[in-house]
Amino acid sequence: MEFTAAASVASRLERASSSPSTNAELRERAADAVGWPHLSVLLTDDQTAGRGRLDRQWVTPAGSALAVSVLLRDLPESADARGWIPLAAGVAMADAIATQLPGRRVGVKWPNDVLVEGRKICGILAEAAGDAVIVGSGVNTAMTAEQLPVETATSFAVHGVQADLDRLLADYLGRLDALIAGLRRHGGAMASGLHRDATARCVTLGEEVVVWLPGGERMPGTATRLEADGRLVVARGDGGVRTVAAGDVVHVRPAGSAQSV
Predict the structure, then answer these.
(1) 261 within a domain of the structure (yes/no)
(2) Is residue 84 a contact partner of residue 182, using CB atoms and an 8 Å limit?
(3) What global pTM score does this model have?
(4) Which domain holds residue 228?
(5) Which of 24, 109, 143, 256 has the fewest CB atoms in 10 Å of its CB?
(6) Could you tell me if residue 259 is inside a domain?
(7) The predicted structure's pLDDT at residue 260
């Protein structure tokens, strides 16, 4: 299909027939700041060696998912504000997906997944690339129930919807660019409204969860709120409170769940 609407939003949009990893390929091109400016996009529906957080492999059948990598150059100055970029991408993608799945509960699972009715439809990975950031996302589009890698995943097709991929990408890019611009202009998520929007979309909040930390430490509790820098606040059963950053956790799972989504 043609991505005419998305191309009108992106500063540059390239589609690959196949790619081992759109994030890796875009990283190679990012050194050319003139040729690949802010909001440049590389996409494919056949990614053969994609990665998620902590180098987890993400592979899907050709034509069943959309892999999109976006190059962000016009970034906020503060490290705290930049820490919100993965959540900004999650909010932007959740908003874009919700437009095409009316009546379903679409939300962000902290820190980097988009869920529909509690099941994962999209994963997000943000990586530094010099002075820029590359945000990669993988959206399950035409994947059938039999093709889903785990029972905690879903897709547009599972919900009986043929996604308008051009509109999905255009909506995502426009919203993401606006959220990043707000962070840059206002200096943080609280002033820009992103903290409010992420809190509203975050399905993790209010849930009993188990946070798995590096080294195998298991921390049960209730996810209560997002801090001003995007960290998750967990109230423990012993009355204590712990705040965790995305880079400090391996998994955040619903209590009693045996699988990660």
Answers:
(1) no
(2) no
(3) 0.93
(4) 208-254
(5) 256
(6) no
(7) 42
